[in-house]
Amino acid sequence: MLDIKFIRENKDLIKEAGRKKKIDFNIDELITVDDERKELQRAFDEKRAEQNRTSGLITSTQDESEKIRYVEEMKVVKVNMQEAEEKLKSTMQKWHSLMLQVPNIPDFSVPEGKGEEDNVEEKTWGEKPEFAFPLKDHIELMNSLEMVDFERGTKIHGFRGYLLKNDGANISWALWNYARDFFGKRGFMHFVAPTIVRKEFFYGTGHLPNDAEDIYKTQDDDYLSGTAEIPMMAYHSEETLRKEELPKKYLAFSPCYRREAGSHGKDTKGLIRVHEFYKLEQLVLCEADHTMSAKFFEELNKNFEDFLESLELPYRRLLTCTGDLSASKVKQFDTEVWIPSQNAYREVSSVSYFHDFQTRRFNIKYDDGEKKRYVHSLNSTAVATPRIIASIVENYQREDGSVAVPEVLVPFMGKEAIGKPSMQ
Question: Which of 11, 12, 203, 206 could form a disulfide with 328 if both were Cys (CB 3.0 to 4.6 A apart)?
């Protein structure tokens, strides 16, 4: 959410942000409603002052006839107050709804484009493996090595269901534990975050209202989080931090749930697109300074790229264009890892920064000694399973049907290769 004063003073800038992000938003309607809001607030405050004045007269007067007259006046004042409050409440709801539609302003370095096809490749790393034997995809490999059970997973969960077992489960734990150590050495505080989160916090991060179809909802009107970003942003909601506490650097583990609405027909088999998965998320809260945000943005991205390089997985980095950039974000990188069987890169991480767009909604501030300011927020994937397992298995497959274990995971796996359980 942007500051309404900033919006009013920079109408053309906001309109341009909406155009670039392909967001149909009527800023003139917001300004009109904001004028109504301010006028109704003024009228309501006047009636409240009148109520306080009349209440004081009732209390102070000793004349019974005057007291009766003031009581009658108070009845009229209360009716007027109620009417004014209802009008203000209705207008505030409309104002808040319009404010939630205002897009954040993309950084000047973000390329203009219509959608993901216009994202810009900025970097590639690693040698794509060449195989002197018939290539297998992760489904065939993991089935033959008894690492996964899709049939029973579908029986239990339904479409996109899966069970990781044996070394399929072991490599998941290895990745989580390795990531915990890897990112922990970079100054992150560790968390295990809740998955069931109040609805209001999804609005805070910007996942609602736009992603409503992709979120699982409980019968209590709470939601299942698709990323630890949401509960970790809620962690400091309605708090004022000290400047000396910043930056806050959190590494949070959580189950994640996404309905994958709109992806029917895409990745219907295997581990590339599933309804439930596990993720470690990097999150940073820092001072309200663009240079500081840009610095941590590059740092979070480097953390993940270093992580992939330590696993020796080929990847590429994409700079997200304006048409593929969500309303809340200033800038985003997507990192895609190589999937040999698909002859393509597939996304395994994104890193984004928001300035104070999220923290205004969460009301997270810090005191810099002069005034209270909204902190800036950033987040990035640290590692998400099981998608990355598909890449590891395919890139590390061997001619005999076994899979080599990345060197950095050997201490966590206790072995250098994955073969059939009967072979171990």
Answer: 206
Query: Is residue 108 in a domain?
Result: no
User: How big is the chain, counted in residues?
Assistant: 424
- Domain limit, last residue, from 54, 72, 99: 99
Same domain, residue pair 265 and 349 = yes
DSSP assigned state of 408: G
Shared domain check, 123 and 91: no
Give the pLDDT of residue 424.
Answer: 45
- Retrieve residue 87's tokens: 């009008």
pLDDT over 60 (residue 79): yes
Task: Give residue 405's domain range.
Answer: 116-423
The gap between the terminal CA atoms of the chain, to the nearest Å, is: 55
Number of domains, the chain = 2
248 and 319 share one domain: yes
Q: Which residues are catalytic?
A: 258, 273, 347, 350, 387
Tell me: do 271 and 138 sit in the same domain.
Answer: yes
Q: How far apart are CA 176 and CA 182, in angstroms?
A: 10
Q: Is residue 110 part of a domain?
A: no
pLDDT tens string 306-318: 999 999 999 999 9
Identify whether residues 317 and 275 lie together within a single domain: yes
Q: Are residues 87 and 127 in the same domain?
A: no
Angle at the Cα of 342 (from 416 to 254), degrees rounded to 5? 60
- Lowest mean pLDDT, pick from 19-33, 47-61, 287-301, 398-412: 47-61
Spell out where 258-343 has E strands.
276-286, 315-319, 331-339
Position 106 in a domain: no
Specify the long-range contacts of residues 398-406, CB closer than 8 Å, at least 24 apart.
Answer: 399/131, 399/132, 399/133, 401/136, 401/141, 401/144, 401/145, 402/145, 403/141, 403/145, 405/171, 406/310, 406/311, 406/312, 406/313
Residues 6 or more apart whose CB falls under 8 angstroms from that of 267 comprise 273
- This prediction's pTM: 0.90
Q: What is the pLDDT of residues 380-392, one digit of tens each?
A: 999 999 999 999 9
Give the pLDDT confidence of 194-238 residue by residue, as tens digits.
999 999 999 999 999 888 899 999 999 999 999 999 999 999 999
Looking at the fold, whether 247 and 134 belong to one and the same domain comes out as yes
Spell out where 94-181 has E strands: 120-125, 148-149, 163-164
With residue 292 as reference, give the H or E element that holds it: helix 290-311
